Amino acid sequence: MSKISFDGAPIEFRPGQSVAAALVAGGIRSWRSTRIAGRPRGIFCGIGVCFDCLVVIDGVPNQRACRMPAVDGMAVTTQEGTGHGDLTV
Amino acid sequence: MATSQSESSTVAGRVMDSVIDIAVVGAGPAGLSAAVAAAEAGAIVALIDAEAAPGGQFWRHPADNPGDATSLDNTVSAAEVAPLHHGLRQYRALRRKLAGQIAAGRVTYFARHEVWAVERVERVERLETERVEIGRINLASAESVSSGARFAVHAMTHTSAAQHEVTIRARSLVLATGAYDLQLPFPGWDLPGVMTAGGVQSLLKGHAVVAGRRVAVAGTGPFLLSVAAGLAKSGATVVGVFDAASPRGWLRHPFAMVSAGTKLFEGAGYAAELAKRRIGYHSGWTVIQADSADGGADVDTVTVAPISPDGSPDSARSRTIKIDVLAVGWGFVPQLELALALGCRTKADVSGVPIAVVDGRQRSSEPGVYIAGEICGVGGAALAVVEGELAGLIAAAEVSGDRAAQHLADHMMTRRLVHLAQRRTSLRTFANAMAHVYPVPYGWSNRLPDETVVCRCEEVTAGEIRDVVRRDGVSDARSAKLLARPGMGWCQGRVCGYATECLTAAEAGVTPCHRATERPVALPIRMGLLDRDESE
Amino acid sequence: MARVAVIGAGMVGTSCAYYLARDGHDVTVIDRGPVAGGTTSRGEGNILVSDKAPGPELDLALWSATLWRDLGAASGDGPGDDALELEHKGSLVVGTSPEALGSLMDFASGQTAAGVESTLVPARELLDHEPNLAPDLPGGVLYPGDMQVQPAKAAAALLRAARIYGAIVHAGTEVIAAHTKDGAIASLRCRNNDGDIDIATDAVVNASGTWGGEISTLLGAPIPVLPRRGFILVTEPLPRVVRHKVYSADYVANVASGDAGLETSVVVEGTRGGPVLIGASRERVGFDATMSYPVVRQLAAQAIQLFPMLKNVSLMRAYRGFRPYCPDHLPVIGPDPRVRGVWHACGHEGAGIGLAPATGALIADMLAGRATPVDPEPFSPTRFAAWADGAEAAVRDGSEGGDAK
């Protein structure tokens, strides 16, 4: 069975599914918090238009979960705000 | 040499060596049809599409061969999503033809490639005077037109680690970039679990994932029926379909009803499906708000109400229903970015939304740019296929010289063009009537509470937008954006642009004027990818 | 007090309206579009003294910077820093080569004599000021006096302040004709959705930016204002990774350049809203509004040279605007001798936001017959007296007519 991880927990998926599809099928509803009010967000438009489903994939932030094919072993983590908390300010 | 491209076979910053005849952007019903028609007419075609498989939103399919399938048995297959589709015979025929053209080297198919920019790379004033006409094609001018690239199409594909860019140089373009769901904000619309109807459909058709167990479907238009039927077939409990429009509206458009029978028939099929499964179809009802239960982050209930004769929801008769997903859609917004970047003229469609202007042969206002499908007027898949075929045939004739000209001069082909034109007219009549029958609810923006988030990206509320209207006297969405930031975020106003214009105009007491928003960067792209020498 | 019509509700027009209304004049602001809908909404909001060589423009810029601080001050009667989104961030100008740094230091010492504050930043201290800057740069100069506003908000705020002093605003209203009486301006014929209106006036201020040439012709006092195209890139929202306005020293040479064709040298800065702005390309291509992707790529590459971390940041939007410029690169500010009552306040090129308050204040001072803090003569429209005849057609079609090159 193919698996990605979400915040460390394994999520099974079927090849051909996007990261967003895998997360929704795995019962995950939100995977981002907005940068101003910290509102939870998950999949909204599902077709790459709205950028609500941004998430950190393999350490790279701001990737559209609905546009990224799930790949075995992929590490998906919740994105906080801009996703660039690691940058020096 | 033309081959089928998958996401893994591209390198960063590649410019295609050869100039192709026609770049078709979008492989939905219009683009697929255009690519096949153009290739059959002898043109060398690149078909560039954001999705994993051809089909667009209407015929969305999972990838044929996902790159890293570790257990192939488990792969999401086209066969399992087949029951969710309509018009599959036509889709399969187009796919077969596409495969043939790919094998013959006339079509290069770029799956999972999103176009972030298009540009004209050659000044082509001379084309205006040398433009060829179907029926009496001037071969000499067709020859001179076909020399050299006139357009560069910059497409991006990505893995989790990197983005890659491919630049395709073409003599002509067919833009078939489609549309996405029109959204109206309401309290709670940004809770996880509230999705666009198209998004719910894409999970089903593209990934075989049912978005929720208990789903309400709301908004307006026949598309809601298709989403509800798909959900029900796939095992979800659909708690109801709430369509703000009244089907009695059709009685005012009897001509349109007879002139495009299949589309209505398709709608009737969905309605029968819903009736069979005892799913309530509530026309004249609208969504008022979505809520999460105490302490929860996700949507748990939706409140719906019937619309009173004055257009406002009758909250005394409202119902609150337990759900885990709410699917909403209020029609469609054409994706005009690429057409606008090339300077193509637009106009307002019957519902006021900007669409690209085309002539009887799908030619835009700009030489060499052809437009088909939803971006020249939302009209459904059947119309898109017809427009795509026309665009493909005409584009091929105008760029490819004698071969395509002979093809078109053929007696059968002349009859084909006449047939396509007639069919387009009747389908367009039907589509226009649809827009009248399924309008967005009157006065919706006046009822929107101040604290509701309108711009999901920049988290701008209705109240903040109204404030700048009152304070600074502005009356249009662009001014509101400059002063209060709605539309300044990741999606660049694609989701909230329509609503912001309605809200701003209503507050200012003027008629909304939905201007086409230019987005020369049609998709966010990493800066590192731009940092390259194009002559390489 | 006089009736004054200000044509243009951009940064310069709203500044003129503010200072004139504060003086007690009956001010009417007319714009064919919404407030701040033109060039004002298509720039970064630069308030710079750092890029100007000693001379009349620097004198004007230094005064204007003082006025901006007044407008932003919590104690004053101006709109305040928050309403203007005014940031006293300063600029860090870096030399990208030892030679460039040398020229920059010479440039800065010349500015010091003219009253510009600056500090040399040696290579080892650059990262203390800008931690994300490329590590191998030879050094730079810090200009604490440079600032930034969000230009659309600032123009809207000044217009609100002007309205408090009684100014009237006609947005969506186009001036279609001017009527004179005995050689003096008498009224403007204007057209909007409701029909035509005549606005009787004693004076007209042409603050129509890039369209200043057209309006000046319509007023019977043509001046050469030409469009120069500029692009700005906007990244995804980020934490405050860029603290100052940061640009490379070659920018200074480009601003003063009269060459046609593309000149880019990048200016990078953060914003309160989150995105990083990357700007400062300039091309003279008339009103060609299409996006130039080679310019976009060049700006992106130059920004990455200064801030390598931007490589992994997404470009979210690009926009272009037309900077109005005059052949001698100085704005036109003051009364036009050809038609009494016609005043010009345009042609600021890329410096319109920064120079706006001084422009408005200068017009107000001159109209009131007060002494002015800077000499207005270098900005006078009279310098185009020799130019005027025969060049109007060139202005209308946006070509290079009248350019000094």
What does this structure look like?
The complex is a heterotrimer of chains A (89), B (536) and C (405). Chain A has one helix and eight strands. Chain A is mainly beta. Chain A is globular and about 40 Å long. Chain B has 17 helices and 24 strands. In chain B, strands 1, 2, 3, 4, 5, 6, 7, 8 and 21 form a nine-stranded mixed sheet that branches. Chain B has a five-stranded parallel sheet with strand order 10-17-11-12-13. Chain B has a three-stranded antiparallel sheet with strand order 14-15-16, with no helix packed on it. Chain B has 536 residues and is an alpha/beta fold. In chain C, 29% of the residues lie in helices and 27% in strands. In chain C, strand 15 and strand 16 (275-282) form a beta hairpin. Chains in contact: A-B, A-C, B-C. Strand 24 (525-526) of chain B pairs antiparallel with strand 17 of chain C, so a sheet runs across the interface.
| Oligomeric composition of the shown chains | heterotrimer
Question: What is the helical fraction of chain C, as a range of percent?
Answer: 25-40%
Largest interface comes to: A-B, 43 and 56 residues
Unreliable stretches of chain C = 258-262, 392-405
Shape of chain C: globular
Radius of gyration of chain C from the CA trace?
Answer: 21 Å
How large is the radius of gyration of chain B? 23 Å
Given helix and strand content, the structural type of chain C is: alpha/beta
Summarize the model shown.
The complex is a heterotrimer of chains A (89), B (536) and C (405). By secondary structure, chain B is α/β, with parallel strands linked by helices.
Key terms:
heterotrimer, A: 89 residues, mainly beta, five-stranded mixed sheet, three-stranded mixed sheet, 1 helix, 8 strands, 8% helix, 31% strand, globular, C: 405 residues, alpha/beta, eight-stranded mixed sheet, 11 helices, 29% helix, disordered C terminus
